[in-house]
Amino acid sequence: MRLIQFFGLLLAMATTLHAHILQRTPTAKAWPYCQESVETYEWSEQTPLGFSGGDLFAVTGQKRDVKFIYGYKTGESMGYVELKQRSPIVRYIHSEPIYTSDNTFDIGIVCPSARVEVDVDFKIYSEDKAFDDNFATTLSSGTLDWCFEGDCPNAGSYADIYFSLDLDKLNGNFHKDIPAPVNQMRWWGRFYEDEMTANISYSNCECDESGCVSFQVNGASIESYNP
Q1: Do β-strands 159-166 and 184-191 pair in parallel, antiparallel, or remain unpaired?
Q2: Neighbours of 209 (CB within 10 A)
Q3: Which of 115, 126, 123, 127 is nearest to 189 (CA)?
């Protein structure tokens, strides 16, 4: 009986000690995070960045004659890119840092700059049939905090398009000409009122006894052409 009581006392003491430790041990600290908010506007309504979705769409010129300069083979081709409005809804997206409590890590975080987005249909065509494709994608412009060179353009004075696409979904023969098995293409383009530049790249890899290394390959550079 006394042995049972002794073990019962030990169990009670252990339970009390555990509760005391939990009470005195601070909870895990939380990391601050960026909370994104989306506000919608009509096509011609001015957003907080000072321009409307219609203004942003007008920057693209809607249709541009362009020159394709290939990176994986010699030669170039003429063609065009064209954008059409996909939705009249304009999104204004902004983020702010959130510190959940006094127990949040006391560190500064930088959230993405505010931007405006509109949904568009994007066509890319080259005379050599490397590209003859349509994409549903997003046009965006916002406040740039830094640039690779020179002064950053003002929000609304430029429009960006970025997307990834599986190459087997392309109608053109771009992916068939690439001299290595490739699955996905990345497009990045920037429009100004008087010019546009873009780059099409894809991932590739080289393997040997020690393993494989992945790298980006320039598939084509695209620039405005004014005959």
Answers
A1: antiparallel
A2: 4
A3: 123
